[in-house]
Amino acid sequence: MIGVFDSGIGGLTVVQALRERLPGHDIVYLGDTARTPYGSKSAATIVNYSLNNTDFLRRQGARRIVIACNTASSYAFAAVRDHFDGPVFEVIGPGARLALQRSRWGRVGVIGTRATVASGVYPRTFQALQPQAKVYAAACPLLVPLVEEGWIRKPETAMIVRKYLHPLKVKKIDTLILGCTHYPVLRQVIQRKIGARVVLVDSAAAVAEQVRDHLAAIPEGEARGEGGGRLKIFVTDTADQFRKTARLILKQPVTIEQADL
């Protein structure tokens, strides 16, 4: 079983990407809706929340953990990796590598939460992968709550996206990393506002491909689907809007359970 956690609903974009690539695997998802957003929290708090989430997923039977949150990946990956007794995946590295593959001129933009941008994790990652790449980051703190509220097609959301993307447009980026797993929900408006020539990189899809490649490289008994592709979704605080947006992301009705951390 694959365990996936995020600060809220955005990590379901990772779940959907995993289901498309690994339809035979059971997935358990935890959305920490009671404590979202993580992007405004301290590093110590983000680590603590991430370890809580990991322990919950372990109790549900998860044998692999996907940190489907750029903020938690930025601050808590090492702690979760040391804490958990199985493979742990994060969304920063896969997204950066995919961006380099798709970038024409090595001018990459990143949008993320305040905490992700402040961590400097993307510039450090690109420095290690391709030092000559130009990386420009912009914090977009309002986008997570807009997605959580289901304001996907509101004109106000389009105006906010346009304002956040303007500093990156003037840098003439050719590739833009959606550096928060909530952001693929806003993919259409982001593409319109950044321009058709800019390639969008979805970190959710990138980490899903990494998990698929990991499973393909291990013995057949491990890589085989476990249990028929069942999905369980837990949240730490129930909300009707979560269910509506989850249905939009997963393209099917969903059953949501309350998590006891």
UniProtKB/TrEMBL annotation:
Alphabetized PROSITE patterns for the sequence: ASP_GLU_RACEMASE_1, ASP_GLU_RACEMASE_2
Coiled coil: none
Any one GO molecular function term: glutamate racemase activity
Swiss-Prot/TrEMBL catalytic activity: L-glutamate = D-glutamate
Pathway it works in: Cell wall biogenesis; peptidoglycan biosynthesis
Domain of life assignment: Bacteria
PANTHER family: GLUTAMATE RACEMASE
Protein family per UniProt: Belongs to the aspartate/glutamate racemases family.
HAMAP family (UniProt xref): Glu_racemase (MF_00258)
Protein's UniProt name: Glutamate racemase
Lineage, opening ranks: Bacteria, Pseudomonadati, Thermodesulfobacteriota, Desulfobacteria, Desulfobacterales
